[in-house]
Amino acid sequence: MKRRQTAQPTKKAGLNKMVLQVVEKFVSINGEGSRCGQLATFIRFAGCNLNCGYCDTAWANDRKVAFVPMSAEEIYGYIKDTKVTNVTLTGGEPLLQKDIGTLLALLSKDPELYVEIETNGSVLLSKFSDLENPPSFTMDYKLPSSGMERMMALDNFDHLTNNDTVKFVSGSLEDLEKAKELINKYKLTEKTNIFISPVFGDIQLESIVDFMKDNNMNGVNMQVQLHKIIWDPNERGV
Ligand SMILES: C[S@@+](CC[C@H](N)C(=O)[O-])C[C@H]1O[C@@H](n2cnc3c(N)ncnc32)[C@H](O)[C@@H]1O
Ligand SMILES: Nc1nc2[nH]cc(C(=O)O)c2c(=O)[nH]1
Ligand code: SF4
Ligand SMILES: [Mg+2]
């Protein structure tokens, strides 16, 4: 009698290759942050641990989203092929990619590139503090209207420098009050760059300016997502 064979795990060369899950990659102008208006190559990764009520890329967080597995070297190759020197890594939550450290280390060796990474404030930035030439972190602090404030890692404020940014995406007066409180409490304008952005379409732009005037918010930048003015706000790949 034949013995029933059980499937044995195989270890083929390349099977354990380190890969990152890329849901889209494109060149556009950066619509946000300190290099707003400049060309940038965007790499968007799959998956997020948060569920912000206003998320404009919730599709990338769907467990069933289609992604292309790419190694750090393949992503670097794509970036160099574009001939664009600004790079934005985003998502989803890019810092949750298992091999993001490998990619950041590889990109940091290229002095021609300016790399920024959009992160949601829940991932400890201390994990990346040993990088020799670190990227610019744009760290969101998720305000009350996101529904995700409880997930914020406040220790991250200690790891930001003048090469980084804290972004407060605000959808209400309560959000603005909270942003002001944190900026003052942690003396954020002395440490890093600060941006306040509206949750797109949810708050009168004038009310943000009025709030900044009423509260002497010197050193704070207000910014509206430029790509949502140029293209349809729901358009992907722009
Ligand atoms: C889609 S997230 C991806 C990176 C990371 N998960 C994060 O939240 O920072 C990129 C940026 O878009 C912002 N964003 C998402 N939806 C938005 C909306 N409806 N209006 C304004 N900004 C939005 C986020 O706050 C974040 O700063
Ligand atoms: N043009 C453009 N600029 C951006 N800056 C940050 C983006 C993001 O989704 O993280 C983004 C985006 O999706 N498009
Ligand atoms: S953390 Fe970023 S990607 Fe995740 S739900 Fe919030 S805005 Fe969307
Ligand atoms: Mg976006």
Kindly identify the CATH topology.
TIM Barrel
**Which H/E pattern describes the elements?**
EEEHEHEEEHHEHEH
Bound molecules: S-adenosylmethionine, the ligand Nc1nc2[nH]cc(C(=O)O)c2c(=O)[nH]1, iron/sulfur cluster, magnesium ion
For the record, what CATH class applies? Alpha Beta
Biggest sheet: strands side by side, in what order?
3-1-2-4-5-6-7-8-9
Count of helices?
Answer: 6
Rg? 20 Å
Averaged pLDDT: 93
Subunit structure: Homodimer.
Protein name: 7-carboxy-7-deazaguanine synthase
Pfam families: Radical_SAM
EC number: 4.3.99.3
Describe the structure.
- Helix 1 (72-82) packs across helix 2 (100-108).
- The protein has a 9-stranded mixed beta sheet.
- The protein has one domain (3-230): TIM Barrel (Alpha-Beta Barrel).
- By secondary structure, it is of the alpha/beta class.
- It has helices at 72-82, 100-108, 173-185, 188-191, 205-214, 227-230, and strands at residues 20-29, 39-45, 68-70, 86-90, 114-119, 136-140, 165-170, 193-198, 220-222.
- Bound molecules: S-adenosylmethionine (SAM), ligand 2KA, iron/sulfur cluster and magnesium ion.
- S-adenosylmethionine binds next to strand 5 and strand 7.
- It is an enzyme of class 4 (lyase).
- It catalyses: 6-carboxy-5,6,7,8-tetrahydropterin + H(+) = 7-carboxy-7-carbaguanine + NH4(+).
- [4Fe-4S] cluster binds at residues 48, 52, 55.
